[in-house]
Amino acid sequence: xxxxxxxxxxxxxxxxxxxxxxxxxxxxxxxxxxxxxxxxxxxxxxxxxxxxxxxxxxxxxxxxxxxxxxxxxxxxxxxxxxxxxxxxxxxxxxxxxxxxxxxxxxxxxxxxxxxxxxxxxxxxxxxxxxxxxxxxxxxxxxxxxxxxxxxxxxxxxxxxxxxxxxxxxxxxxxxxxxxxxxxxxxxxxxxxxxxxxxxxxxxxxxxxxxxxxxxxxxxxxxxxxxxxxxxxxxxxxxxxxxxxxxxxxxxxxxxxxxxxxxxxxxxxxxxxxxxxxxxxxxxxxxxxxxxxxxxxxxxxxxxxxxxxxxxxxxxxxxxxxxxxxxxxxxxxxxxxxxxxxxxxxxxxxxxxxxxxxxxxxxxxxxxxxxxxxxxxxxxxxxxxxxxxxxxxxxxxxxxxxxxxxxxxxxxxxxxxxxxxxxxxxxxxxxxxxxxxxxxxxxxxxxxxxxxxxxxxxxxxxxxxxxxxxxxxxxxxxxxxxxxxxxxxxxxxxxxxxxxxxxxxxxxxxxxxxxxxxxxxxxxxxxxxxxxxxxxxxxxxxxxxxxxxxxxxxxxxxxxxxxxxx
Length: 565
Hints:
The chain is of the alpha/beta class. 44% of the residues lie in helices and 18% in strands.
């Protein structure tokens, strides 16, 4: 019934052309005329055979024979009557079994399908569309971005040039629109002047063209573009891009920040206004073997332990959680609190700097970005690469296959504190992760994931930390959309903020059950322009407060659906 009502609605809304309506009326008129003529002829022939029937019986016989049901309860005995029955039967086959389905498809079903296709993949958005995100490409980065937009109930459309591709994406649950991304008319129809953001993640050349084209339609809408080359940044900015993301540099910097190197100094991995998020390895420090309560980090430094990483698994610690040598603490607090922590614990070294370089497998853009970060921090490193790239010296390079044990021995795998795997191929990264873990159970292994689906596999293979190219890009774009500047902490872990949900107003943090019910931790509360870090459990949440939380993506999803729905 819903299907039929949708079709009738399509017809009622005038989506069938006038010419088709005239043809349909002609068909109906001819069909009724045939039924009337056959019904009258039925009476004359039956009377000639000495049978008397009512007009209703004549109509009944005509419809039964034309529809080929042929009940056989009323029959002719003469040859002329049987010939007439054959005529009625054949005309019924043509008009009811052939022409009627064709007419239904042409005049009803096809217009309905076309209407549905237009509604699924519009070429123009309604005039009142506003505060939406326009995405000019569907790739792993934007696919991850779309998931975040859905969670936060933000409107978006992916502009697709090919109709078949648009239908394919629609079946995947993606909101799509049809248009040429290099045509100013497309963005006018997409209401770009009322959009909150345009996202371009194609090649540098296509992104440059996109930025120029968007600027023809709007001078105010923010544009975020990705860049494959550092030389493209200035060009993209001149073309009109508001923010250019060098994702390989961001990924390299994040991976380098998570690497255990020469000392136990806390590494900053994220910021939110005055709040600093750091990771601090416990290995080699007096924290080893203590419970969280015994560490007294909150009392001594004003730092909150928001989580602990254990071999790639993020857990929410309890007061009796024991900190062991493989634990990496995730701490939140002020700059001063972090500095005080460093003053106490930076004297405890894990490794001697001299002779113990970190291994970087893959000398591409991400590997090179990691090396640059290590050079700035004076951390020794060795890059394992199959072929020495032109223009790069060989002081820090070992040329060979990372799957070859001799190559790894040359790179110093026996003493290296950590190894970072940065190749473009996830299969290779999984293989090398498993291989290195079998060689060195105590080695810290960090890996790049090109596709989100391989993150869990890399963890199972033995990676301590995995960072996804797609998640990093999506988080960077989403944070720009919200006017924030937070780094990706690690794959699956994120900082997010929102106004106090109605269901939490007037309740204390302790009574809210946020941590127990969702796995998220409130690390700060912004009230009247001030950020209160490490809020006390008895703080009462107000309607105008802004909560800053940290948690895994699953925990964030649960929080948004339980409290912010």
